[in-house]
């Protein structure tokens, strides 16, 4: 069973590497969206420091959402998703592994890139560290919650917009705790409250989200 | 006929439930109308003017029942979805689907009346208070669930997807509420506290409770009417539906 799941992870990663444009485009979206904000709101360092955490987190949210339809849609289109469902492995684990592959190729690059973009918003060193840590805890949650939405909207008319409408309200707690921790740190308060809650949500998400996503996938493939 | 002699599971079939819903809907709507008139009479003519807020406080007679219903209907909808998923019963999914528009309507009413009350009281149409924000998100969840149902062509898949999303949303509603509350205390400090309700005159409370009951009766009646439409649409090919139509 482990070998099969490892194989699946490797396959998903290889697919992304061989079709780089999807993953890279979502990353570029993250960079461009954050770079637009100083042009829109003005470049005073105090203002940028105030809006920076929120802007970076919202951009991360939207960028993670853009890459969500990659999670199941291609496999659904060429029929391999049905084969994956038939594997002698619990569907929950299959979904968890696919979600992990999605996070490694969409969430992790955001985490690595965020400190660099944080510099554009004049964030101090410790705020940058908290930003990176909060994204490290938060982006897996974005992939996990997003997997439920992606499974529900599989092959549905106007799926992309519908996915956004379904998933964005569910992302709100992640946004609040993530951006809240960074702003707390920037204001000289302890960021650990927000980070601990993000960690708690991540544990909840890891346990329940693959289960819900697997149920949703079964509904969509019925 | 005693309670135990009626076969309650019989009404899990759309064929048996369709006429029952047809009897219950006007009954509940009439109750809603009666209680609503009594409640509104108390609200506008019996209840005294509030010495702090003046006449504008009277909007809570509609606002509070609507806010209660908006949350309660979401829970009921998620429960019907769960029953549907567990027992694979068609009628449960239909009930869940029938409740969604009423719930969304009450959420919208709560938001609009809240804004109308907030303008004279707080001097702002909208405040990013924890309750307001989570109510807005609740509206998004309702609209998302309804959009999902209408986007999927195949009814059975639409039903199940709707139920899964309603359940995921129901788990998220408390998390969203507490996250927004936490965020609110971080950003605004102690701004406006809605949690400490002022001691209310008994007659005001009675007015509110009667109107809340009216909203309950209305929700049941509206859901019954809507579920009849849904059954009629889904079962239009069924022989019993055609026989009933011919008999009429």
Structure in a nutshell:
The complex is a heterodimer of chains A (222) and B (248). By secondary structure, chain A is an all-alpha fold.
Describe the structure.
The complex is a heterodimer of chains A (222) and B (248). Chain A has one domain (2-221). Chain A has nine helices and no strands. Chain A has helices at residues 2-18, 20-41, 45-66, 73-77, 80-86, 91-120, 125-152, 159-186, 192-221. With 248 residues, chain B is an all-alpha fold. Chain B has one domain (23-181, 197-247). Chain B has helices spanning 14-46, 60-87, 90-122, 130-151, 155-188, 202-234, 239-247. Chain B is globular. The two termini of chain B are 28 Å apart. Residues 188-194 of chain B have low confidence and may be disordered. Chain A binds chain B through residues 148, 152-153, 156-159, 162, 165-166, 168-170, 172-173, 176-177, 180, 183-184, 193, 197, 201, 208, 212, 215-216, 219-220, 222, and chain B through 85, 137, 140-141, 143-144, 147-148, 151-153, 156-157, 160-161, 164-165, 167-169, 171-172, 175-176, 179-180, 182-183, 186. Chain A: Belongs to the CcmB/CycW/HelB family. Chain A: This is Heme exporter protein B. Chain A: InterPro entries: Cyt_c_biogenesis_CcmB, Cyt_c_CcmB_bac.
């Amino acid at each position: 069973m482990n070998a099969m799941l490892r194989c699946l992870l490797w396959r998903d990663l290889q697919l992304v590497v061989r079709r780089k444009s999807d993953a890279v485009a979502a990353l570029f979206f993250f960079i461009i969206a954050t770079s637009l904000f100083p042009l829109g709101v003005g470049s005073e360092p105090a203002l940028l420091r105030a809006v920076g955490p929120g802007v970076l987190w919202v951009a991360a949210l939207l960028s993670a959402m853009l890459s969500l339809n990659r999670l199941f849609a291609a496999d659904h289109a060429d029929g391999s998703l049905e084969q994956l469902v038939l594997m002698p492995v619990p569907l929950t684990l299959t979904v968890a592994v696919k979600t992990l592959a999605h996070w490694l190729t969409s969430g992790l690059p955001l985490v690595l890139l965020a400190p660099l973009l944080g510099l554009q918003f004049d964030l101090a060193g410790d705020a940058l560290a908290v930003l990176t840590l909060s994204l490290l805890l938060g982006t897996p949650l974005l992939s996990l919650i997003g997997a439920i939405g992606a499974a529900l909207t599989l092959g549905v008319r106007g799926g992309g917009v519908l996915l956004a409408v379904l998933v964005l309200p569910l992302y709100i707690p992640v946004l609040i705790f993530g951006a809240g921790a960074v702003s707390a740190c920037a204001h000289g308060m302890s960021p650990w409250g927000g980070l601990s809650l993000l960690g708690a949500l991540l544990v909840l998400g890891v346990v329940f989200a693959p289960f819900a996503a697997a149920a949703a996938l079964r509904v969509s493939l019925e | 006929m005693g309670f135990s002699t009626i076969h309650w599971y019989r009404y899990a079939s759309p064929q048996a439930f369709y006429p029952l819903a047809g009897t219950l809907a006007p009954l509940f709507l009439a109750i809603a109308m009666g209680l609503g008139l009594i409640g509104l009479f108390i609200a506008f003519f019996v209840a005294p003017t509030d010495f702090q807020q003046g006449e504008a406080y009277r909007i809570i007679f509609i606002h509070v029942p609507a806010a209660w219903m908006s949350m309660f209907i979401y829970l009921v909808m998620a429960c019907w979805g769960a029953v549907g998923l567990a027992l694979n019963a068609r009628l449960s999914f239909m009930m869940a689907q029938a409740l969604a528009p009423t719930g969304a309507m009450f959420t919208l009413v709560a938001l609009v009346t809240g804004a109308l009350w907030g303008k004279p009281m707080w001097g702002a149409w909208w405040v990013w208070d924890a309750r307001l924000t989570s109510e807005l998100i609740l509206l998004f969840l309702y609209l998302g669930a309804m959009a999902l149902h209408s986007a999927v062509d195949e009814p059975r898949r639409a039903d199940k997807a709707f139920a899964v999303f309603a359940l995921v949303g129901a788990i998220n509603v408390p998390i969203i509420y507490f996250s927004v509350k936490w965020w609110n205390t971080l950003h605004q400090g102690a701004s406006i506290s809605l949690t400490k309700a002022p001691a209310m005159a008994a007659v005001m409370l009675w007015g509110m409770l009667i109107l809340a009951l009216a909203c309950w009766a209305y929700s049941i009646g509206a859901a019954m009417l809507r579920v009849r439409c849904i059954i009629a649409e889904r079962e239009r090919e069924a022989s019993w539906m055609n026989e009933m139509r011919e008999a009429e």
